[in-house]
Automatic annotation (TrEMBL):
InterPro entries: CorA_cytoplasmic_dom, CorA_MIT, CorA_TM1_TM2, MgTranspt_CorA/ZnTranspt_ZntB
Catalytic activity: Mg(2+)(in) = Mg(2+)(out)
Pfam families per UniProt: CorA (PF01544)
Protein name as catalogued: Magnesium transport protein CorA
Location of the protein in the cell: Cell inner membrane
PANTHER family the UniProt entry points to: MAGNESIUM TRANSPORT PROTEIN CORA (PTHR47685)
A GO cellular component annotation in the UniProt record: plasma membrane
Listed GO MF terms: cobalt ion transmembrane transporter activity; magnesium ion transmembrane transporter activity; nickel cation transmembrane transporter activity
Protein family according to the UniProt entry: Belongs to the CorA metal ion transporter (MIT) (TC 1.A.35) family.
Segments passing through the bilayer: 263-283, 295-315
Keyword line: Cell inner membrane, Cell membrane, Ion transport, Magnesium, Membrane, Transmembrane, Transmembrane helix, Transport
Entries under CDD domains matching the protein: EcCorA-like_u1
Length: 321
């Protein structure tokens, strides 16, 4: 799919046919483009759309580079699949003085909401540079929303794990561990995304030296870089909190397991003396006076009860129960 947008007094207007000869798009958004569409765009704008394999490479030279007057910048952005699973996908920004081209196989939320917002509100889109910065502003805002939502969920999870209410039904720690793992994966994706965006900001300024950014664009880039650093610090804090919750949950599981083992251990020790007595009188030797004694059976039962009670009393006195 190819979506094209043209400038209209600081706003973006969608184009019915962005590949038409008369079309003058300022932004082309390529979502899983067909090969012949890719070739047409490359021929018209003198750029080279990177392959999926090139976009997924982690070397900085493969993600941030200039070629033939165009700047190629690839970042990683979090998305959700149809099964609501978090996923980190590469998104490439190709910037020339005339146009911004974005390439991706999945559509991050910011790419879904930004066009509508830019169509209704003047976001300062004056050229390809300002369109890119406005789009990155939406991306950073979306990452901030993910961290805010994750922070609230982690705080809620923290109360569930650490605040034990007397008489409350035992927690299913399998679900707790699953939630902790899910939040950890989401925050990890945001961290990796922010790292790639910060590297992009560092590269973007010097890369435009041949056509310096406007004063507003420079100020916006500086603000975005500052926001990205702040979000990275917040993501690191959430990571530490998730690790603490994981350790606390594993500790609670260990405590519950120890309590269960303690019950079985006490039961085994309490019933060991009665079992020993029953074993002695079950040997059936010929010379055992109690076997022919009329009160031998109640005597053995009483001895078993007394031995069990004595074991329990000793455990209770020592504070082991």
């Amino acid at each position: 799919m190819i979506n094209g947008f043209a400038l209209n007094d600081g706003r973006l207007s969608p184009l019915a046919d962005p590949l038409a000869e008369e079309a003058r798009p300022i932004w082309l958004d390529l979502l899983n483009p067909l090969p012949h569409h890719t070739r047409a765009i490359e021929a018209r704008y003198g750029i080279k759309v990177p392959s999926r394999e090139r976009m997924e490479e982690i070397e900085e030279s493969s993600r941030l580079y200039g070629d033939g007057g165009a700047i190629y910048m690839t970042v990683s952005l979090p998305v959700r699949t149809e099964l609501d699973m978090p996923l980190l996908v590469p998104v490439t920004f190709i910037l020339t003085p005339e146009i911004l081209v974005t390439v991706h196989d999945y559509s991050p939320r910011a790419f879904q909401t930004f066009p509508t917002r830019a169509e209704r509100i003047d976001l300062g889109c004056r050229d390809s540079d300002s369109v890119l910065l406005a789009l990155l502003d939406a991306v950073v805002d979306r990452l901030a929303d993910i961290l805010e939502e994750g922070g609230r969920e982690i705080e809620k999870l923290s109360r569930e794990v650490l605040h034990v209410i007397p008489g409350e039904q035992a927690k299913d720690y399998r679900l707790v561990l699953r939630d902790i793992g899910h939040h950890g994966e989401v925050v990890s994706h945001v961290q990796r995304s922010l790292v790639s965006i910060e590297r992009m900001f560092v590269f973007f300024g010097p890369a435009t030296a041949t056509r310096p950014l406007s004063k507003d664009s420079r100020a916006r880039l500086k603000s975005l870089n500052r926001d990205a650093r702040f979000l990275t610090e917040h993501a690191n804090f959430l990571t530490q909190k998730i690790q603490f919750l994981l350790d606390a949950t594993l500790g609670m599981i260990g405590i519950e397991q120890n309590a269960t083992i303690k019950i079985f251990s006490v039961a085994a020790v309490v019933f060991l003396p009665p079992t020993l007595i029953a074993s002695i009188y079950g040997m059936n030797f010929e010379i055992m006076p109690e076997l022919s004694w009329a009160f031998g059976y109640p005597f053995a039962l009483g001895l078993m009860v007394m031995s069990a009670w004595l074991s329990y009393w000793i455990f209770k006195r020592q504070g082991w129960l």
